[in-house]
Amino acid sequence: MTEVVAIELASTVVNEQTAGGVAKDLAKKYAKSAVNKSAKKVAWKGILWLVGLVGWPIALLILFIMFIALVVPLAVFTKDIFTPYGSAPYGYYDGGLGFGLSPVLGNWTIVSGGEYGAARDYGAHEGVDLAVPEGTPVVAVAAGVISFAESTLGGMTIYLNGDDGKVYVYMHLGEREGYSGMRVKVGDVIGRVGMTGRTSGPHLHFEVRVKGQAVDPMPFIKGVVVPEELLYRDIDVNTTINWITGYLHGDSLLATPENINILINVGRQFNINPNLLIAITGQEQSFVPAGSSPRMLGNPFNVYGSWEIYSPGLEVSAKIAARTIINLSKGRPEGTQPIYWLNCPSNPNGMYATDQGWWRGVTRFFNTLQNN
């Protein structure tokens, strides 16, 4: 082993600083290997101890129950979870969650005069014109079959005949991916924005047709399943910090300008009221009081079970919590309290927490923060 290490160092070292770096890397490599081997031995010894204690049949049953206990919380939080893209208002691919269908992969703005229904020399505008740089990918907003067409007005065009019964139209493309008759799924890149047809600049003309009639695409692009009272709104950072520290009668790891701004930005990205995210941290971890483990701040929402076993950082855990809120908001019966539905036993999408009183605590914190 010494000779192997010496050869690796000799072939890499060019100066003292590099040698130090290589030595550190090798040390980390062998230390990690040793830890992995040690962990496997400990796990195997634990299994053998359990078998010796209760026998193989009972041991297998216990291990199966432990496996289910870990997998079920993961399934609730990861069901239909997708990473959004773009930063235009509501302009995110939602993976079927329903919080905005973006036909382009990137920032977009509506061209002046490009609104649905705007007067044109040929009649009312039947779609929306989304201004984006030439070459920006366009994606399928529904599963279905695409077909290609071209015209003097729309230039290079794609019709997406969605499985949902709607037809989605993409015009002024510079490139198309695939072929007519090809089946696509949500999020597949089907072309790129161009300037073909009658256009004065690069943009995507996007239409939604229901039973052959063009309808306003914006409700689809802005489509949300989260009720209005839980949608994004601006909050004051200092007011929020003062309320949290006042409630705790002390400091909080969460209540800093940096951390509150992280939650505001995540709320803005997912169109979720940041006060709801903050309220959940209050119910789950009492707003992470000073003196708490830093790992708790890395997952004050208890996504994937607990901060003790999963602590990816405040921003990542907040994004998972936001996606979970959106997922659990689907199918809410009319008149049902929105936060209660997130934790309702009859919610087919799952429950945020096993505590039946969870929604009451979150609602109390949320309402107080809203009125603060």
Describe this structure in words.
The chain has 372 residues and is α+β, with helices and mostly antiparallel strands. It has eleven helices and twelve strands. The strands form two sheets. Strands 1, 4, 5, 6, 7, 8, 9, 10, 11 and 12 form a ten-stranded antiparallel β-sheet that branches. A hairpin with a 3-residue loop joins strand 7 and strand 8. The longest helix is centred in the first third of the chain and has 39 residues, at 16-54. The relative contact order is 0.09.
What is the total tally of β strands? Answer: 12
Helix content: 40-55%
- Mean pLDDT value: 80
Form type: globular
Work out the helix count.
Answer: 11
Radius of gyration: 27 Å
Runs with pLDDT <50, length 5+? 1-32, 76-99
Strand content: 15-25%
H/E series, N to C? HHHEEEEEEEEEEEEHHHHHHHH
The CA-CA distance between the termini, in Å, is 65 Å
CATH class of the largest domain: Mainly Alpha
Category from helices, strands and their pairing: alpha+beta
Query: Mind telling me which CATH architecture of the largest domain this is?
Result: Orthogonal Bundle
Largest beta-sheet details? 10 strands, antiparallel
List the SSEs and their pairings.
Elements: H1 2-12, H2 16-54, H3 56-78, E1 109-110, E2 119-120, E3 123-124, E4 128-131, E5 137-139, E6 144-151, E7 155-162, E8 166-176, E9 183-184, E10 189-193, E11 203-210, E12 213-215, H4 218-221, H5 237-248, H6 257-270, H7 274-285, H8 294-297, H9 314-329, H10 338-342, H11 358-371
